[in-house]
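Table S4 entry, ATP synthase subunit a.
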Amino acid sequence: MTLSFFDQFMSPTHLGIPLMALALTLPWILLPAPSTRWLNNRLITLQGWFINRFTQQLLLPLNLAGHKWATMLTSLMLFLITLNMLGLLPYTFTPTTQLSLNLGLAVPLWLATVIIGMRNQPTAALGHLLPEGTPTPLIPILIVIETISLLIRPLALGVRLTANLTAGHLLIQLIATAAFVLLPIMPTVAILTSTVLFLLTLLEVAVAMIQAYVFVLLLSLYLQENV
């Protein structure tokens, strides 16, 4: 029974063919495409307002050199939100619960920010490894610590997204199983458990959106240090 709780995190396959690529492609079909009409419908208007507000908030602390990343960061935000929200539906698979996928998104983007910093301002980029005013005996230790903290950033990005979504999915399945088992035995307790499950689902919707925002926000902060 314990192992069955983790079956929802297994990558789906059909006839031995992994369906991860299909799971990553389908969410884009659900996004409404802009039309050439003068007046759009409410859904496209709401989508455009959300993208504009998010882009303005994201690029607020960045200089003009960092504005080149606006399209990629906004697209990544929409992609992660769509994957996280679709994963809350029954009988669906959440690709962002896979650490390999999250690291595949985090490592190249983090590495790109580091390379940009090394290319444009190498002195300032290397200066982050040693805080100003450090006592001489502590210089070698602090350089090692700051280097480790720099290299662990993409791992923290991937693990944070994976752990939050995995914990939420497991908690929802545990409470749903408890409510189903208690229904014929103690209906009152089962109803209370179902109420907790509903509230937890609302919380997980918020977590799915917040974690996608935090992922992109931290990438923009890493970019801010290097542009």
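The chain has eight helices and two strands.
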